[in-house]
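In the previous lecture we treated proteins in isolation. Real proteins rarely work alone, and many bind small molecules. This record shows how such a complex is specified: first the sequence, then the SMILES for zinc ion.
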Amino acid sequence: MKINHSTPENSIALTTSLQYITGPHWEPPTIPNATTYWRCSSCGRESIRERDLHRTTFHAPSCEVQEC
Ligand SMILES: [Zn+2]
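The predicted 3D structure, ligand included, written as tokens:
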């Protein structure tokens, strides 16, 4: 009996959207109440909360980031 060893090819799909989410970035200390923020490198939108970046409604209609 032969065992068919197939190579999984779906292991990279999970990070397709997340590759556009960068952060946390630190605002310059010259800004009052400086905080950290997250940025989408695809559409350029920013938020101080990372979870905003994981919502497709946060992104521009033409953004590469999709629901995952
Ligand atoms: Zn985006």
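Summary for your notes: Residues 20, 40, 42-43, 45, 59-60, 63, 65 surround zinc ion (CB under 6 Å). Strands lie at 21-26, 36-40, 46-47.
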